Amino acid sequence: MIWENQEVEHEEILRRQFYTFVIITGYLGLILIGFMVALQFMEKSQQKYPSMTQCDLVSLNFEDNQSEFEKFARLDQMPTMNYHGHGVYQCYCKQYSTVDAAQDESDLCYRYQYDLLFGETFSKLVSAAIAGLNFGIAMANKFLIERIGYHQNSQVIGYVMQFVFNAQYVNTGILLLFTNANFETGILSFLPFKGQFSDFSSVWYLTIGRSIVYTMIFASVMPFVRFPWHYFVKTLFRTIDSKGTCRKRIPKTKKVTIQQFVNLYSSKDVELHFRYSSIMNFVFVAFTHGLALPILFPIAAFGIFNQWLAEKLLFAYFYKQPPLLDNQLNDRSLKILQKAPLAMMLLGYWQLGNRQMFFNEPSELVNAKDIVDSKHNFFHWDDGLSHIYIFLLVLPAFIFFKGAVHKLQQLMFKVKMFEPNKQFDQDWNLSINIDEDIGKYWECIPGMKQKRWFAQVTHL
User: N or C, where is the chain less crowded by C-beta within 10 Å?
Assistant: First the structure.
């Protein structure tokens, strides 16, 4: 129970919820715009060297004649820099140059190796930036939600977990997917996404798929990065406060109250909301992209194991004793996790319908910069028995299964096949409402002297 929030009215809570939603949505919107600009910049660099260039066929034209190959590569260098090369410069540098050429501007393949090195570095920086932004999103959500005015601590932790998970999932699993998508040739042409990829392709796996994998790898080792960071920050502030005497038996301090001293020198509070949201983010990203990128499943399992191991150590040696909470947080997280297979089914349905990969129907590409018409629709009825029928059969059953079970329970109770147990809800969770008949915050402060003390501490 958060006593100081008991006086906050329901209408005020709703108004603060709306403001918090607008701020968080705006923050995610700015991140989306920033990534779209950054990825378009990276895409321009990649368009110089199309991945579909068949260098084996280009090399055959010169029959291992390196001098002749180099001559035509020099002629093709400027057209390649202007995005309409013939592939000779690209294939020559791929075959005869090394990454050391990126350090010598006089080398013929300097621009090629420099662009490749820049693209690789930029891709990893994007993945690291997503992991860093997830931490910033978590802290911003916590700061805003704690000021909404919820009456119970479990409500605050639950909403922080929900908002942080939603923001991190969009940032990790959805952002890279949609900022590079192109819906101009499909049924979703009304959406304002005009990226490089109209469908999943080999180039998508080399760029976007790789960035998603790198992002998950960064996130999987973050549990072991957070503890040294928090410990460093605590030690730094203690050292500044004590002027280097924090290790002594009686350190010096600039704090003027006991509570300030205790807050600085005590351990860190348990952040259950961040841990829950991190685990759910691992699960949802793995389920969302798992059919296209199966390596995400072992990476997610590795990240969850690291989280478990790090938390065991932190609970033993670093955290304060956690507060006593009810089962609301755990129940809320379980309800969210039940929707992870739905994300896998929806995106997996689209991935399994790829015409080039699974039906051997490649689309013609005239120019390297053209957007390929993938000929990929939601339904292809002329394919015979395919994943479409499985999807149409399983998806409604998955969505309406729980509701159907509840309706069946109610029917059985009406015909008196079973007697309802008031101690359990429809999902067989313990449902006991304990009313301790505790008054509001001001009613529990006895005497005018205590009320004046509270006002003095709060407002002076």
Answer: C
- Cα–Cα–Cα angle for 358, 363, 294, nearest 5°? 35
Residue 376 CB contacts under 8 Å (≥ 6 apart), including other chains:
186, 198, 199, 350, 353, 354, 355
Dihedral (CA of 225, 228, 230, 233) sign: negative
Whole-model pTM: value is: 0.67
Interacting residues of 117 by C-beta distance below 8 A, sequence separation 6+ = 99, 102
User: Within a 10 A sphere around the Cβ of 187, how many other Cβ atoms?
Assistant: 11
- Do residues 246 and 239 lie in contact, with contact meaning Cβ atoms separated by under 8 Å? yes
Distance CA 381, CA 31 (A): 39
| 97-123 pLDDT, tens digit each | 888 887 888 888 888 888 888 777 776
Distances (CA, A) of 452 to 6, 257, 433, 456: 18, 19, 34, 6
The per-residue pLDDT for range 333-366, each reduced to its tens digit, is 888 888 888 888 888 777 777 767 766 666 666 5
**Distance (Å, whole) CA 241 – CA 13:** 37
Amino acid at 145: I
116: closest CA among 51, 46, 47? 46
Rounded Cα gap, residues 130 and 133, in angstroms: 5
34-43, 66-75, 296-305, range with greatest mean pLDDT: 296-305
* Side-chain half-sphere CA neighbours of 391 within 13 A: 20
- CA 204, distance to chain mean position in Å, is 19
- Residue 65's region, left for phi above 0, alpha for psi from -120 to 50, else beta, is beta
- Residues 63-89: pLDDT tens digits? 778 888 888 888 888 888 887 778 888
d(CA 213, CA 328): 32
Alpha-carbon distances, residue 371 vs 43, 198, 205, 350 (angstroms): 13, 7, 16, 18
Say whether pLDDT at 54 is over 80.
Answer: no
CB 148 within 8 A of CB 5: no
| CB hemisphere CA count around 182 (13 angstroms) | 19
Residues near 396 by beta carbon (within 8 Å), at least 6 away in sequence: none
- How many angstroms separate the Cα of 106 from the Cα of each of 97, 103, 149, 161, 167? 13, 9, 64, 54, 47
